[in-house]
Design brief:
The complex is a heterodimer. By secondary structure, chain A is α/β, with parallel strands linked by helices. Chain A is built from nine helices and twelve strands. In chain A, α3 (about 110-120) crosses α4, α3 packs parallel to α5 and α4 (about 125-140) packs across α5 (about 155-165). The longest helix of chain A is centred in the last third of the chain and has 26 residues, at about 245-270. A two-stranded antiparallel ribbon of chain B has the order 1-2. Chain B starts with a helix and ends with a helix. Classes of the chains: A alpha/beta, B mainly alpha.
């Protein structure tokens, strides 16, 4: 193998009560790679994403990010659970974007972005503000530093959330269905920012239902169902020529839904 | 067809609904008010000039500041601080902390403030004449080992401050913490879990997450009932008499009334001061609510915009 993968997950298992949602996931993600996770809801893709930065603790297996074992210290073959502060340190280099944005509503856009660089990394305020200005320009919101999240559209909020994550200069970005809570006409602006980010070489793991994005941007598509990886490969291969019955069923259903939406849009606007 | 416009209904000029009940109510209230005013004006025992005089007495003002206001501020600071700490303990993963917080709330909520203050003012002094600060069980250990020192570093004579407002602040503050703990807990639970997750994902520690992200948002829910508690506390400082602490508004005003056998002006003086203090607190509360409610309205204040502009300009200079 040429280089150690940025994310190296081996046999990851996770249960909520009696419900095992991850049944032994093996997954390597290399530096600069964009990996899209597809699959029906409840397939475990979001849970796996949250395990990577320890928002969920795993029951079995191991996850390494950039060579560092997440959540535990291995001392002479014995695992010791890390202290909360240590886990917080491990999370610094991993950016995360949530389905529901989760911006801090009591802070304006600028304060949302500089909060972690100043409080966690100890950057000076002016340094953080300069970086925030840059990032806001990059996500097309240079005119909004004083706005509060509630004054922004969903698409704008999600772009601020991406800028907030990037302010920590992460090595890896996790996207948990970043466009699922958005009105259809606002999806594009968020995907555009993500496309740019991918072009710049950011390592990205994206849980999404956006087939177009997965096809165009992903280096690899992973299809999950029932807590296991059913198949993975280049987007053209998985999306256009799926091998497994479960993948085919899922893609057919997505296609049907997509066509319904298109038909509905044509019904409404075509008649004008 | 051109005549249609003249047939179309125009502006509404209807008679309003009659409200005879309203007039009856106004008449009754006006009558009651007139009776009250008549009593105030015609009964010389109200003696308002003397009430105003009492309000301005040095001992009364002194009691207002050093008993009522200092007592309220002190007890609320202690109550809010300890209450938030108890709420965080109650919500922690540590079962011991959870249990302690629960037991504390259980005890102090069941304890009447008057009884608590009497115990602290009188009962504690009966149990312990002085408090020694040193190694726990130091005196017993020293005795057993035959040491010359008794391992005590400092002592505190309880009598020196058993009858001061500080005991009152301690008692009222401990009691208040039990109520504030429940208010703070409700506030913390009202904040969406996604907020803490977003903070954690950015690498913030649990302490930073609580202090900078969760608590400021919880304050929006915590402030209104806390204002209520503060106003209740102003009135509860009249219980300081149980300690007994007499440098307190009600006791002083009452004394002026009873000493001169003009009881009512004393009560009126105290009532007016309580009304004034509580009115000022209500204004302060509305400012606090506006501050902690920021980001939940829809308009950016110009002050906020100016602050951000200044920050951006300053950063640009570097």
């Amino acid at each position: 193998m040429a280089e150690t993968p940025l994310v190296h997950a081996v046999n990851v298992t996770k249960s909520f009560g009696d419900n095992q949602v991850l049944k032994g996931i093996d997954m390597d993600v290399h530096k600069g790679e964009v990996v899209c996770f597809l699959g029906p809801s409840g397939s475990g893709k979001t849970t796996f994403l949250r395990c990577i930065n320890q928002l969920e603790t795993i029951d079995g297996g191991r996850i390494w990010v950039d060579g560092e074992l997440m959540g535990y210290a291995d001392r002479n073959g014995h695992l010791h659970r890390l202290h909360d502060k240590e886990i917080a340190r491990q999370r610094r280099d991993i950016g995360m974007v949530f389905q529901r944005f989760n911006l801090f509503p009591h802070k304006n856009v600028l304060d949302n972005i500089i909060e972690a660089p100043v409080q966690v990394k100890g950057e000076s305020k002016s340094e953080a503000v300069n970086r925030a200005k840059e990032l806001l320009a990059r996500v097309g919101l240079a005119d909004k530093p004083a706005a509060y999240p509630a004054q922004l559209s969903g698409g704008q909020q999600q772009r601020v959330a991406i800028a907030r994550a990037l302010a920590m200069r992460p090595k890896l970005m996790l996207f948990d269905e970043p466009t699922s809570a958005l009105d259809p006409e606002l999806v594009g602006e968020v995907l555009t920012v993500m496309r740019e980010l991918a072009k710049e070489g950011m390592t990205m793991i994206v849980v999404t239902h956006e087939m177009g994005f997965a096809r165009d941007v992903a280096d690899r598509v992973v299809f999950m169902d029932g807590g296991v990886v059913v198949e993975q490969g280049a987007p053209t291969q998985v999306i256009n020529n799926p091998q497994h019955e479960r993948t085919k069923t899922f893609l057919r259903r997505m296609q049907a839904e997509h066509e319904q939406v298109v038909a509905a849009v044509q019904d409404t606007f075509g008649a004008l | 067809m051109t005549s249609v416009t003249s047939d179309r209904p125009g502006a509404i000029n209807a008679r309003p609904v009659r409200h005879p009940g309203r007039w009856v109510a106004i008449a009754i209230i006006a009558l009651l008010l007139a009776m009250m005013v008549s009593s105030l004006v015609t009964n010389p025992k109200w003696d308002f000039p003397y009430a105003f005089e009492i309000m301005q007495q040095k001992a009364v003002i002194n009691g207002l500041w050093k008993g009522t206001i200092l007592g309220t501020i002190g007890a609320m600071i202690l109550g809010i601080g300890l209450g938030i700490a108890l709420a965080v303990m109650r919500l922690s993963d540590n079962p011991v902390l959870r249990g302690v917080a629960f037991a504390y709330t259980w005890f102090f909520r069941a304890m009447p403030r008057y009884v608590l203050l009497a115990i602290m003012g009188i009962g504690v002094g009966f149990l312990y004449k002085q408090f020694d600060i040193g190694i726990p069980f130091g005196q017993q250990i020293a005795h057993a080992l035959g040491l010359s020192t008794d391992l005590t570093f400092a002592s505190l004579k309880w009598d020196d401050f058993s009858s001061t407002v500080w005991v009152g602040i301690l008692g009222l503050g401990l009691s208040e913490a039990a109520y504030m703990a429940e208010i703070a807990r409700a506030g913390i639970l009202s904040v969406d879990r996604g907020q803490a997750e977003a903070a954690q994902a950015l690498g913030m520690s649990p302490g930073q997450t609580m202090r900078r992200i969760v608590l400021p948002q919880a304050m929006r829910v915590i402030v209104p009932p806390t204002g209520n508690e503060t106003i209740a506390m102003v009135k509860d400082t009249s219980l300081l008499a149980a300690i007994p602490v007499i440098a307190e508004l009600y006791y002083q005003a009452y004394q002026f009334g009873s000493r001169s056998f003009r009881i009512m002006p004393g009560f009126v003086a105290a009532t007016l001061w309580y009304l004034i203090v509580c009115s000022i607190l209500m204004v302060g509360q509305s400012y606090l609510e506006r501050y902690f409610g920021r980001g939940f309205g829809t308009s950016t204040s110009t002050k906020q915009a100016r602050k951000v502009d200044a920050l951006l300009a300053r950063a640009g200079d570097h």
